[in-house]
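BUG-367 | component: ligand-complex export | severity: low

The export step for magnesium ion jobs runs without errors, but we want the raw record kept on the ticket for reference. Input record follows.
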Amino acid sequence: MSSSRIFRAPGRVNLIGEHTDYNLGFVLPVALNLATEVVTEPSPDGNLHIFSEHRQERQSFDLAGLATAQPRKHWTDYPVGVARELLALGFHLAPLQLTIRSQVPEGAGLSSSAALEVATALALLQGRALPPLEIARLCQRAESQFVGLPCGIMDQYVSVFGRQNSALCLDCRTLEADFVELPAGAAIIAVNSMVKHQLGDSAYRTRVAECAQAATALGVASLRDANLDALGNANMADKPRHRAWHILTENDRVLRFVAAARAGDLNEMGALLVESHASMKADYEITCPEIDFLVEAASEIPGCYGARMTGGGFGGCTVNLVDPASVADFQTSLSNAYRHAFALVPAFYLCQPGDGAREITKPAAGV
Ligand code: ADP
Ligand code: MG
C-alpha cells in the first residue's frame, strides 16, 4: 500500500458580511469547489520538506527548530505557522514531505490562505483527531499571530465546516453557524478583476484599528454590541464613525440576505449585494476603480440580480448572483466591457458550494 496521503481544504466565496468577522458579527460564506490539496509522503531525511507546485519552490525545515521559527514574510509562513500551533497543542510532528497543489487563485479574495492552512493542518495531523472547531481556530491563530494579518475566523471556519449546496451563516461571536440552502434559480459567479493593489494588507490593519477605536468610543468590547442609535449619539472622529456604520449596517444586511434566501427572493438578495458594495465603497473605503467598474457593469447586464466585491478589498473578486440561463451572456458582456475599460481579461469561476476539508486519499488498488 502506498504511504502517500492526500488532504483537501476548499477556498471560499463570501456572499455577504465583509470585514464583519473580526468585529464578531455575521458572515455568509460558501465553501468552494476550488480547493488546495496537500500530498504527504515520508521524509527521506528527518526534516520537514514543503513544496509548492504553484511557486515551483521547495523549502526544508529542521523539525527541532520549528517551535521557535520566526516569520519570514514568505509563503511558507502559512504552513510553518500551522505547524507551530500544532506543536504548541502538544502534537508530535512526523518528518514528512508536503506537496501543495491548489486550484484557488492566490490573493484574489477566495481565501487561498485559509485553504492552505487547513489542508496543512490535516496533513500534519495525519489522521489524528482534533475537534474541527479547534482546527479552524489554530489556523486562524497561525495567520493572525505568525503570518501577521489580524484576520477573523470566517475563512478557516468555512474551509473546515462547509457543506454542499449551502452557505453558512456564521455568528462570529458564538461561533455557531446555520446552514442556509440557496435558491435554485441563481448561479454564484466569482469574477476575478486580476488586480490586487498593494495597499491591501496595511489598509486591512488600519480598518481593524479603526473599528477598535469606534468600539472604545462607544464603550463596548466589540462593534457587535453597538447599535446605530448609539453610533448617532457618540462623539468620535469621522473615519471610525464611517467604518462602524458599515459594520453595523452590514451585519443587518447579512440577516436580511439569509431571510431573502430562505424565501427564494432573488431580487432582494441581489439588491442587498449592491447595498453592501455601496457601503464598502463609501463608508469602509476598501474598493478600487476596477472592482467598482465590475460591480456597476454587472448590475446592468440582464439576468444579473446583483453584485459586490468579496474578500478583504482593493482588488480580487466580485461575487455575482446570475440567472443560470444568462451565465454565458453575462460572462461575454462583462469580459468585453472590462477589457475595453481596463485592458484586462477577467477570470470567471462558477461557484458550486462544496464540502469542508477532509482526507481524500484513495485506498490502494486491491485493498
Ligand atoms: P487570499 O487568501 O485571498 O487568496 P491572501 O493574501 O490571504 O489572499 O493569501 C495569499 C497568500 O497565501 C499567498 O501570497 C501565499 O503566500 C499563500 N499561498 C496560498 N496558496 C499558496 C500555494 N498554493 N503555494 C504557496 N503559497 C500559497
Ligand atoms: Mg486570505
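Assignee comment: Attached the raw record above. The chain has two domains: 5-181, 187-350.
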